[in-house]
Amino acid sequence: VQLQASGGGLVQPGGSLRLSCAASGFRVYSYSMYWIRQAPGKSLEWVSEINTVGTAYYTDDVKGRFTISRDNPKNTLYLQMNSLKSEDTAVYYCVKDNGVGAAYDYWGQGTLVTVSS
């Protein structure tokens, strides 16, 4: 199993980025998948989840601004981030569920998002 995250970078407040997470060794639609972030000096924070039937969940801080999705043929997870704020600055990880419920078993390497003017 491998998860390869990409798409991070420097963006101004109010801007947009789309993170991608290419998966191998399993099918992204067969497991719940998550985006989790870690801001500088802070603990890990759950951001979003998409479950096997495609239902999406978000932490309150990003509702209405972020959209999680997946492309089954490409076996890729996405996080579209709009109206970015400085407090969204963090390393973003894509994470796979272990299949037995709300436990993480594989993590991508993380991609850094910096929101700054």
Task: Break the fold down into its secondary structure elements and pairings.
Blueprint: E1 2-6, E2 9-11, E3 17-24, E4 33-38, E5 44-50, E6 56-58, E7 66-71, E8 76-81, E9 90-97, E10 104-107, E11 111-115
- Structural class determined from secondary elements: mainly beta
- Please count the beta strands (DSSP E, at least 2 residues each): 11
| N-to-C series of helices and strands | EEEEEEEEEEE
Shape descriptor:
globular
What's the average pLDDT? 96
Distance between the termini: 37 Å
> What's the Cα radius of gyration?
13 Å
Tell me the β content: over 45%
Describe the 3D structure.
- By secondary structure, the protein is mostly beta strands.
- Helices cover 0% and strands 52% of the residues.
- Strands 2, 4, 5, 6, 9, 10 and 11 form a seven-stranded mixed beta sheet that branches. It has a four-stranded antiparallel beta sheet with strand order 1-3-8-7, with no helix packed on it.
- It is globular and about 40 Å long.
Descriptors for this entry?
mainly beta; 7-stranded mixed β-sheet; 4-stranded antiparallel β-sheet; 52% strand
Short note summarizing the structure:
The chain has 117 residues and is mostly beta strands. Helix content is 0%, strand content 52%.
